[in-house]
């Protein structure tokens, strides 16, 4: 992928979430949603380093990872609307969606809970000899969860093909990460597991792709897990409706000057700027068409409410 392709995918993620917010405000989206505005370069760059068959597990802020893995746009909108989508039949909505056909293991609303799941996928890849790698994204706050440490340590001991991508957006819900840990970078903890740790610019898809690509190659050759910490900033609240009173004045405005789409725009010459304008228009039309198609998907039959329920 080149710059226009990266821009197109990041713009698709941004436009998808902006449209999702409007649908939420209009009452078409039930439940809460967690957006990745400003963090789009991380899933775009990371998934560029993957191939078919590699697993991806995300947090509840995982729309960007789903789209980067090729999950269908119409299916995503329909799922968010609680309709009978081809993904999870409207049962998963925003925080639990998955798509095994795209090797998207899925999201998890419990902080850090995706890491043991991803370690299980990595164990499957190792035991079956498939050559697949398991990539899992977590937020900075998840690095304080016990199950995350247990899963990383197990992956290290067993040399599992696991890559942990920490999306450090400075805030763990409403608390700054610097107020919660004493280490300067979360990758300093990698030494405790005996695995490599690397910090990258999370607003640069090329930097993310290079770092994750190196970790993926290491995992694929049987050398075990790695941790990549991608530094970024959240442009929106922790959840839909978050007033963000905890953020200092001017912080979000400053972050908007550094976010990945703006960065590409700022560096573009006239010819590239014209191409990016065309991409924005195409993405806007694509997203609107997907919303229209999703609205045509019926709601689930109430008679199926007991399906997929284990007693």
- Our count of helices gives 12
Shape: globular
Low-confidence stretches: none
Largest sheet: 6 strands, parallel
DSSP helix fraction: 40-55%
Q: If strands are numbered along the chain, what order do they take across the biggest sheet? A: 2-1-3-4-8-7
What structural class do helix, strand and pairing data support?
alpha/beta
Straight-line N-to-C gap = 46 Å
Q: How large is the share of residues in beta strands?
A: 5-15%
Would you list the SSEs in sequence order as H and E? HHEHHHEHEHEEEHEHEHHH
The oligomeric state is single chain
Question: Mean of residue pLDDT?
Answer: 93
Count of DSSP strands: 8
Radius of gyration: 19 Å
Walk me through this protein's architecture.
The chain is built from twelve helices and eight strands. It has 311 residues and is α/β, with parallel strands linked by helices. The chain has a six-stranded parallel sheet, with helices on both faces. The protein has a two-stranded antiparallel ribbon with strand order 5-6. Strand 7, helix 9 and strand 8 form a beta-alpha-beta unit. Helix 1 crosses helix 12 and helix 6 runs parallel beside helix 7.
